[in-house]
Each structure stands twice: as C-alpha cells, then as structure tokens.
Design goal:
This protein is of the alpha+beta class. The chain contains two helices and five strands; from the N terminus they run βββββαα. The radius of gyration is 20 Å and the shape is globular. The two termini are 33 Å apart.
Length: 137
C-alpha cells in the first residue's frame, strides 16, 4: 500500500510567469544544537497549476504527485487555504489530486494508443484518432 502524499503549506511567490506552473515557498523550523536556537528555513517548489487559478500571495496546500510532471515540477496544488486578491468564486476551480491523476492517466492511455496505431503503420487511422482527441478536448 503506497503511503499518502505529504501535504505542505506555503505561499505562492511567483504566478503567471510560467505556463501551468507557479512557485510556492514553504517554511519550516530547524534547530541548531550548537547555538540552541530555532531558525526558519525556506524551500521553494515549482507546482502544477493547470487552470491558472492561483495568484501571487495565495496561501495553498500542495502535495507530491505520484509521477513527475516535468523536469522540475513534482507537486500539485490540493487546495487554496487563503486567497489573495479576487475571491475563489471568481477564479477557475483548482483540480483535486484525484482529478489530476485521472486526467494524467487518460492522457497517457491516449498517447499509448496513438503510438500503437502509428507503429502498426496505419497513417489514416492515426489522423482520425488525432481529430477525435482534438474534438474531445
């Protein structure tokens, strides 16, 4: 049984500069045993935001996805805790982790199907399949 993804809370630092991605900064406390003092450590994550529903300043919860989305993006937004600027109702909805995983699996299955048809040598069928997926999207 796989372990559930670790949920992190952070603030959106950069939004709207990258397509379908935002930068989220999280904070944690680290204890220095020599100085006997707590220090804040910041870590930034690139997070997938396919609907572009996040703005800089939003407080969000993020989780690690099952598979790596791209070279640098490994996390997905699970919910907006506190919006900054326009309300949540005025923005596109945030995809849940389950919705995101199912969408990703469907895309992968369509890709494998297209690849199998291409390898069989049916150019006409591949073009028809591409047209069907374009209409479905």
């Amino acid at each position: 049984m796989p372990t559930p993804p670790k949920i992190l809370c952070g603030v959106v630092v950069s939004a709207g500069k990258m397509m379908k991605a935002v930068k989220v900064r999280t904070v944690k406390q680290v204890y220095n045993s020599f100085l006997k003092k707590q220090f804040l450590r910041h870590q930034s994550y690139l997070v997938s935001d396919p609907n572009s529903s996040l703005r800089a300043g939003d407080v969000v919860k993020i989780a690690a996805s099952e598979d790596q989305i791209s070279r640098h993006i490994k996390h997905v937004v699970t919910e907006i805790v506190s919006p900054w600027g326009p309300g949540i109702e005025e923005r596109p909805p945030v995809m849940t982790l389950e919705e995101w995983v199912t969408k990703r699996r469907e895309q992968r299955e369509r890709k494998v199907e297209r690849r199998m048809l291409r390898d069989m040598g049916g150019e006409e069928t591949v073009e028809g399949l591409v047209e069907r997926t374009a209409v479905a999207s």
